[in-house]
Protein: histidine kinase
Amino acid sequence: MKSIRKRILIRVLGLLLVGTLIMGWASHHDSTHEVEELFDAQLGQSARVLIGLLGASQGQIPTEQLAQALLETTGEHPKLGHRYESKLAFQVRDANGTVIARSFNVPQLTDADWQPGFADLQQETYRWRGYVLESPDSALAVWVGERSDVRGELVDKIVRGTLVPDLLGIPLMMLLVWFAIGSGLKPLDQLAQLIRLREPNSLQPIVLGDLPAELEPVQAALNRMLEQLHQLLAREQRFIADAAHELRTPLAVLKIHTENAMQATDPGEREQALQHLRQGVERATRLISQMLTLARLADDQQRQRSPVALLESCRDEVAELLPLALRRNQELELISDNGLPDKVDMEPGSLSTLLQNLVGNAIQHAPDGGRVLVSLQRRADQLLLRVEDSGDGVPEGDRERLLERFHTQGNSQGAGLGLSIVQRIIERHQGSLLLGDSPLGGLLVQASFPLGTPVSG
Structure:
C-alpha cells in the first residue's frame, strides 16, 4: 500500500532537486558570463596601464629603462606573491616587432596573435584568453592574457558556494517536509482512526470538527454512503417483516387445505380441498411476486431509461390480460387519442408492470359481465393513462387507504400491493396518481406522466 506521505515527499523533493539543479546550471551560466566580462575588463585595463606607463617615457622616463625594470620585476620564475600570478602574463613589443618587456610565463605568440582586441589562444598545455592594445602615439603594442582555468576555478567556486549548501540542506529539508506533511495529514489520520474505532453495526454520521476543506467532500461522501446503507437496511428489514407477516396466514391456510385433502375420504371433498389449495398457492405466488417487485422499486437509484413503443406495448398487455376478462364475460377495451408519441422513455418493464396491476385490479373488482376501459390521452405535455371499471367503486374517504401496503378493498384474493407498486412506478417517473369516480360506476385510476421530449421511432 502506497503512503500519501511518501508520495508527496518524493514529488516535493524531486521537484526541489530538479529546481536546485536548474538553478545551479543557471547560476553557472550567469557566473561564467559575468566572470568573463569582469576578467576581460581587467585585461583591457591592465593593457592600458602598461601602454600608459610605457608611453610616459616620452620626455619623462626612457622606454628602455622602464622595460628593463619590468623585465627585472617579472624575470624568469620570480618569487610569486600570489598563486594566480603564474596564470597571468604580458608582453610588449615596439613597432619593429622587438619584444621590449615580457613576463616569465608568456605563451609563444605569433604575428597572427597580435591582432588588436580579444582572442583565445590554445597552447599545448593551457588555453589563454588574450587582449592586444596598440598605441599609435608610442608605436607600442601590448598583449596581456590569463589562463582560462583561472576563470573556471572562480566560476566553480561561485557555483559550489551556491549549490553545495543547497544540496547539503536537502536531507534537512526532507526531514522538515516529512514532519510538515505529517502535520498536514493529521486530520486524515484522525478521520481514519475515527472510522476504525466505530462499531461494525454503527451507521451514524461521521462528525470530525475543524475539518480541512479538502476532506469535507470525503466526510460528506462517507456520510451519504452511510445514510444510503441505513435506508437499504431499513428497507430490507421492512421487507422481511412484511413478508413474514403476510405469508404467515397464506401458509397456514395452505397447510389446512393440505391436511383436509389428505384426510378426506370422499372424492368430492378431496377435490374441493385441492381446489382451495391451488387457489392458495396462486395467491401466495402472486403475493411473493408483488413483494419482490415493490422491493425492487423501493430503490431510489435511477435506472437507465429506454424508448418504449407506447400504443404497441399497451395493446400487448391488454391482449395478455384479455383471457382473465373473458373468463368472467367482461368487456376489456383500449382506446387512444390521436397525437400520442410513438415512443416514450421509461424504465424497462415499468409500463408492463403498471398495466398488469391497474388492469388486473379493475378486472377483479368489476362484476361478471361488466366492463373495463383503458384509455390513453394527451393533455399538453402530459400523458394520461386511465383505467376504469364498472364495479361498485370506492368511497372517497377510503381511497387514500388503497395506496397503503397490504390493504385490500373487498378482495380476499388480492395481496393489497398493486396500487402501492403503481404509485412507486409513477413516482420514479416524476408523475402523479389520481383516484376518482368513473362514469362506468366503479373506480377511476389516472396516472399522469410528463412527456418531455417525445422519442420518435
